[in-house]
């Protein structure tokens, strides 16, 4: 970010200078090309409110099948489509976009968590069902802050148990490899292994 803070600087960069910076991530040559491709698309056709592109199979298996090739949907169209659908087809990228960026782009809120909107507004992140374990863990934590236990597979939620809320306030929550929560006996800084309960 410091060396290439804008899409323009990333597009103009020598790929061979990008590669060593991201070598620790693996697949550095492919990643460098991908980063520059995304930056180029962003400059030529940036995500725009009112221009949505279908992504076949996202967020549901049948999504995008009722949209013609090359068709761009407006906001009044109820079919599934996304402002970054012309840039990526990856669920992780679209989930992240929806969680952290979409409301602001669309002018729905001042930030990703509904800032600037009154009571009753539902931020976009509340409608996302990510497959990525870290996004699942993050949204489970966000829902817990709202007072709910949330199922990342179904989207169902129920009022959080007092035991769980107490553990969260005391720093006794850890995450498993599926984004599930564990209640620890001690705060995570002291003991991150022992647990007295596990949530599916």
Automatic annotation (TrEMBL):
It comes from the Eukaryota. The lineage of its organism: Eukaryota, Fungi, Dikarya, Ascomycota, Pezizomycotina. This is DNA glycosylase. Its main location: nucleus. InterPro entries: DNA_glycosylase (IPR011257), MeCP2/MBD4 (IPR045138). GO terms for biological process: DNA repair. The keyword Nucleus applies. Signal peptide: none annotated. The keyword Nucleus applies. It is found in: Nucleus. One of its GO terms (cellular component) is nucleus. Keywords: Nucleus. One of its GO terms (molecular function) is DNA binding.
């Amino acid at each position: 970010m410091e060396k290439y803070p804008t899409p323009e600087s990333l597009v103009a960069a020598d790929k061979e200078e990008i590669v060593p910076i991201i070598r620790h991530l693996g697949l550095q040559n492919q990643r460098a090309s991908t980063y520059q491709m995304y930056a180029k698309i962003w400059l030529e056709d940036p995500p725009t409110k009112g221009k949505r592109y279908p992504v076949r199979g996202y967020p549901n298996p049948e999504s995008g099948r009722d949209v013609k090739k090359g068709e761009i949907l407006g906001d009044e169209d109820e079919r599934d489509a996304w402002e970054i659908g012309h840039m990526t087809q990856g669920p992780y990228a679209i989930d992240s976009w929806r969680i952290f960026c979409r409301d602001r782009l669309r002018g729905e809120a001042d930030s990703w968590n509904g800032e600037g909107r009154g009571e009753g507004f539902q931020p976009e992140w509340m409608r996302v069902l990510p497959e990525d374990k870290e996004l699942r863990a993050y949204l489970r934590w966000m829902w817990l802050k709202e007072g709910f236990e949330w199922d990342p597979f179904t989207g169902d939620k129920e009022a959080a148990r007092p035991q769980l809320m107490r553990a969260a306030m005391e720093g006794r929550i850890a995450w498993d490899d599926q984004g599930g929560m564990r209640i620890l006996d001690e705060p995570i800084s002291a003991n991150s292994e022992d647990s007295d309960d596990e949530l599916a």
